[in-house]
Each structure stands twice: as structure tokens, then as C-alpha cells.
Amino acid sequence: MAAFRSTERYIASRDLEVAVNAAIALQRPLLVKGEPGTGKTVLAHEVARSLGYRLIDWHIKSTTKAQHGLYEYDAVARLRDGQLGDPRVHDIANYIVRGKLWEAFESPDPVVVLIDEVDKADIEFPNDLLLELDRMQFHVYETRQTVVAKRRPIVIITSNNEKELPDAFLRRCFFHYIRFPDRETMERIVQAHYPDLRKDLVREALNVFFQIREVPGLKKKPATSELLDWLKLLMVEDLPPEALRAKEGKLIIPPLYGALLKNEQDVHLFERLAFLSRRAGA
Amino acid sequence: MFATFILALRQAGLPVSLTEYLTLLGAMKARVAAYDLDDFYYLSRAALVKDERHLDRFDRIFGEVFRGLERPPGAPEGEIPEEWLRLVAEKVLTPEEMARIEALGGFEALMETLRRRLAEQEGRHQGGSKWIGTGGTSPFGAYGYNPEGVRIGQDGSRHRRAVKVWDRREFRDLDDDVEIGTRNMKIALRRLRRFAREGAATELDMPGTIRSTAHNAGTLDLRLVPERRNAVKVLLLLDIGGSMDDHVRISSELFSAARSEFKHLVHFYFHNCPYERLWRSNRRRRDETVPTAEVLRTYGPDYKLVIVGDASMSPYEITQVGGSVEHWNEESGRAWLERLTGHFRRSAWLNPVPQDFWGHTRSIGMVGEIMEGRMFPLTLRGLDDMARELVR
């Protein structure tokens, strides 16, 4: 049985490994939730990479219907062909457009299907996929054929919790909540992404980063992806670690903070706090 | 195999079903977690818990059911045996008191004190028993009773690595009975959304077009439908001032969440109990009031009425003519409440007072009766229940 482990590029905690392996072993979907920027989407990419499977990425939007993942009947094209007298019009199968799930079910090699941000879709969306994900098959009404998965794909579903998912859907999934990594894990993650980054710079950067996360009242706390972006910027600018060092635990405004704070109100709040802290120290 | 565990989880209110139990057993059989308690904990969590709000409760039950499973023979020393604490607790506190302390969640402070004192005690290395005997009965009592408190002394203790993971209870914030933020509220309120097609027909109705084109034997016949919009209408009445001062933060959070969630949201303020006049803005409440009768006339029965208030007042303010603390009311609060609930097809009362306290205030019971039991605590769970009730 293929098993998933942390790779050199993606540091997974033990509980995440167990959850992914359970989903692989029982061929059930894995539902992943967590703060934005903690690597939910990247997880699917890494699972596919480490198992050597192909990844089929189905990105969900508010207008996505479950049917889009299975197939669509392009009625307009057929109508046009019909009016132009195209001979293709006699076979309805010419106008069936395959969706991502069909593609995954038909694939002779094992694949990983990522259903990204499932909560963005309509409330009924997960319900409409119950049977398809459970049995890994569906029926094409127009051509009266049943598509059955040749090999059950590994399905990874991510959610940002904007909508609650129905119980019947949840029953069929394994669930994992990605917690925000602690400092130790964070160091490993940074190490994995930028192996040649200077140790002292990482230390100072993490100090600043965790300090910012602890500022009360931030609307959007910076997460792993923000940290990685920021470090990249620091590397590009070639800043010395001294630029990040705060004096006696005081709050400083870090250089290039735009990568960490994405919200105007947060920036204001932070500037005010830094100002107060500077004044208190003076 | 783990039937006790599953039953304990169900008893604690986690929605665990047979399907999930079988999934867990299946995964065990497939050797996903073999001979390792940590892995088993992770696996059972992934299989049985489907909502991060339940993670904390799961941790607690897991700790209780599998307690001591991997305790090494030489159990940690220098820590206060929990049975002992429990004994002290049972001696000092009545079961009601314990339940109350637990329900109030006032353990944070206690925990801090305990941690500090423990550190103190360790530093001095002298008679721990004496220290407990004198200083600590009440805090420790509470502590000993609480399943979470018992183990705090072992926080970071080197010996019980396996138990530590769930004992840390990192998911406490996510428990739905405890914390509530605007974002979470919005999600809870979203249950109320109801989409309907209203207004001008601007969207191409594909199935309709195809159907009518087919009917026309292939001559194109375009059909349009109005766009789907959230059509739910909410009338929010907020209690303000007096005893509500304690709940200002949560009420304003609810208000801002509701405002961004509903397009048709109307709000009014009242004090303690709605009477014949309501007002829109608190600054000008003396001179700009709206007669309640006008509100009833303006907003149709299809509005969903949500009253937010602690319902804590003198019973006279509900039952008596002239009972209001602020003015002379010609009709009792009860009459106005019944008029409101009678007019709107769906109504509910949200109460920021913790539910365990409702029994202590008579007026809460009375209002609850007038609302025919549709009073919900202002927690995520309460909002959820309310939303369910309102869309029924």
C-alpha cells in the first residue's frame, strides 16, 4: 500500500500523515480544513507528487454545479450545428463535454483529485456529489451510459468553512483540521523551502512573525504562505538580520510588512501599536 | 471493539454514527495505525470528528476513555494525585456548584493560579500536602473536578508523552459552546439564507430556452429569468442599556455579522422589553421614536423577527400596565410581545445570558414562555438552532 510521508518540500505533521493514509487505505475522500495559508491546497499537490500520481485539480467557484464535474451537455453547440446542417448533430455523444471527475474515473493510472474550496459552491453542491464520491460512478442520462471509476481516485477536498457541509457528506469523509504550525515546525517548513537561508535571519524573521500573529485584534493573521512570501522578499532585498531585530521585546514595523499584513485596517492597527510601544520605551 | 468509546462520544453530543465507527474499524484493519496510541488517536480523530468545533470535546472524551493506557510503570512523581484533588473537591463543593463552575468556564483564572502556585511549590520543595490543605481547597476543588484541570499539573511532564497530545486540548477555541466571532456568526446566520428569483429577468434560462425551442420545432426562442438573490428578510430588535451593558460586545458582533449577511435587514432598539415605541438610533432615542404599531404595519409577516436581549428585568415590566422602568406604558410588555410574535410568522429570542443561568431569573422564564420556547442562547450553537427554527 502506498503511504504518504512528509517530503523534503512539504512538512506534514504526524496527524496529517495518518489522516491522508487512512483516506488512501479506505479509498474515502479526505476533507481538509484550516486557517487560510496553512497549505491545504498544496497538500493535494504533494500527495500526488509523493505517490507519483497525476493530479486533477477541480477548482470550485460560487457558480460551480456538481454536474460540471461529471459532464455537460453543450446544447447551444448542438442547436447551432442543427441549424447549419452539420452531420455531427445526429450523435448526441458529440456534445457531451467531460468534467474533471469523469476524467479522473476514466484514467487508467491512479490519480489524485483535488476539489478545492468546496464551501464556495452552492449549499446543495456536496449533496449532489454524495453517490458519485461514494460509489465512484455516475450515469450519463443523454447517452444512457454509466461511467464507473477504473481505479478509485484519491479525493482531497478543501474547505474554508464559509458554508457548513451536510452531515451525509461528512459521514463519507475523513476529516483533518490543519492547525497553525508551532515554531519548531515552522522552522522546518522554512528550511524545506529556503534551505540556504541564513539561520540568524530565519530566527529574527520568525520572532517578528510570531509577534505579529500575537497582536490582538488582527483581522487576518499572517499564515505560513505569507511568511514564505515575506522571507522570499527579504532574500531578494538582501536585508541583514539586524533590520528585523526588536529592542527589548518591543514591537517594530518590519520591513516589507505588506507581505504579512493584507488588510488596511490591520496595517493601521499595527502601526499604532508599534508607535505606542516605541513611545513607551523612549 | 471500541463501543464504549463511541457511546461516550455520542453521550457528549458528538454526532458519531455507525458509518464512522465502521470506517474506523476498517482503517484499523487496514493497519493505518498499528500498535501506536498516538497514531490511533489521530486516526480516530480523522474518522470520527467531522467538525473542528468538536475537536476539543473529542480530546476530552478520548482522554477520559483511554486514560492511563500508556502510563509507564514508574508513574510521574512530585505531582499531586488527581484522586486526591477530586476528594477535596467533592468535600468542599456540592455537585451543583461543580456543575456551575464547569459550565461557566471560569477555569482560565483558576488554572493560572494553580500553575503559579505549583511553580512556587516546586521551587520550595516542601510539604505539598500542607499547602493543599490550607490554601487551595476552593480553587483546587474546582480543579479536581474538572477533567481538564486534573492534568494541568502534568503539562509538559516528561513521562506521559502519549497522553499529552489530546491533553493539551489545542482545539479548545473551536468548541461551539464557547467562542463566537463575527465570522463564525456569519456562517451560522447563513443558514437563514433563502435564494429566490425576484426582479427583472436578466439571466438566460438555458433549460427553458431549450425546452421552448424544442416545442417550436427548432426555431430559437430565448427565455430569460431573474437572477437568484438572497431573499430572506430580517427584523432585528436589540435590547440596549441597563443590564445589557455586559453584553455589548457580543451584541454588536451579532449586529455587524447580520448586517453584512442580509440585504433586507431592519433594526430597532428597545429597553428591557418592547413596548409601544421603538427607536432607530440610540443617540436620538428621546426625540426620534417609531410607534411599534407602525413597525407592524410596515414590515410584513414574511419578515423574520429576531429579538436580542437578556430578558432580565422585573417581572412587572412584562406583566403590568405601567410596569416599565422608563415611562408609563398603557399596555403591558406581554401584550406587545404577543402582538409581535403573532404578526410575524417566524420569530425567536436570542439571549446573551449563559443558558445555565436562565433558571435564576424569573423574567427569562416568562419571556421564554411568551416566545413559546423559541429562546436561544447567543452562542454559535444557539444561533444555529435559531436559524433552523426560523427557516422551518
UniProtKB/TrEMBL annotation, chain A:
InterPro entries: AAA+_ATPase, ATPase_AAA_core, CbbQ/NirQ/NorQ/GpvN, P-loop_NTPase
Gene3D superfamilies: P-loop containing nucleotide triphosphate hydrolases
CDD domains given in the database record: AAA (cd00009)
A Pfam family this chain is assigned to: AAA
Domain AAA+ ATPase positions: 26-184
Superkingdom in the source lineage: Bacteria
GO MF entries: ATP binding; ATP hydrolysis activity
Protein name in UniProt: ATPase AAA
From TrEMBL, chain B:
Highest taxon, organism lineage: Bacteria
Cross-referenced Pfam families: VWA_CoxE (PF05762)
Protein name, as recorded: VWA domain-containing protein
Organism of origin: Caldovatus sediminis
